[in-house]
Specification:
This protein is α/β, with parallel strands linked by helices. The chain has 15 helices and 15 strands.
Amino acid sequence: MERFEKGINRKGTNCVKWDVPFVTEGVQPMWIADMDFEVAPAITENLKNITSQGAFGYQFLSENYYQSIINWMERRHRYKVAREEICYVPNVVLGLSFAVQAVSEPGDEIIIQTPVYGPFFRVVEDNQRVLVESKLKEENGYYTMDMEDFERKITPKTKAVILCNPHNPSGRVWTKEELEQLAEICMRHHLYIISDDIHCELVRAGQKHTFISSLSEEVRRRSIICTSPSKAFNLAGIHVANCFISDEELRGKFMEIAEKSHAAESNAFVEAALRGAYDESEEWLLALNDYLDQNIDYFVSYIEKEISGIKVRRPEGTYLVWADCRKLGIKEERVREFLLDTCKIAVNDGEFFGKEGRGFVRFNLACPLSQIKGALENLKKGIETL
């Protein structure tokens, strides 16, 4: 636990989280989803070995890279992935974009389940597809899929759904039963499933993540699973992600799009970072999840006991907490501004996740507990001024 409580000073490193203009002196940044912890020692050591080579020219990914992914998925998730299924992409959002292009044509419809991670909207609309929203059901902060609404939104022009599992921002880890219901509807209507599983390693105690493609061979053939070590091991700046595509024809379309976008080449640090994470840092990840459980339990308990006007629910996955601020008595469009200016906390505004997010904010708890305690004290004092 000590390694995480120590944290790391990222100020002045061109860090998006800490060095943007609105994170002024005294503001605690709890917004963009990366972590204020040192990465696992094995990853740092691997990257040092690469820098010692003294040259950073064109490089390809070795078979060791792919075997590392295969071993990790089998060991951690009991999920068998074949070498040929693995498609490297620089990040998951690019993978989502290529997937949308691979399964549809301009003018076709893609369904997303809102509120949801902001780039889902963009990868549909930026590729000239028609965005269709199916709202999740929310009851006392707990979100479920509205299967009737989802199926009602399907038309002959609908080609795919983009799934977020675990869900960002609500923190739901979809159960096998929920995924089976969704998959049954998709298969019946011949839809593809594009699944963002980037948070699959960050599952809270007592929860279990399921890849939707593991449900059946039919579902697997019509799925594109997007994964990355970037969230769990704090590697967003390395640009490493992988999409699993079982169907050979679909995989060919996907990789052709990636190559035409000149985004199929990795950089000199990709393999070293991924192998340092997957081959040598599982114990570090277990300790991280224990620490995050502690942070989340403290945060949720404090809000419930000490702060009125904000409702939170313990997330089942991720290190993010989705907070309902609609009872604060502040205009919905001013909640983020109030938290920043009065409480000195930078958060993600709920509307980033769609119109269903109005009046909500998202807190990032991947930081030392001492920082969370300070932020909560500021939050309590700020709300008392209302």
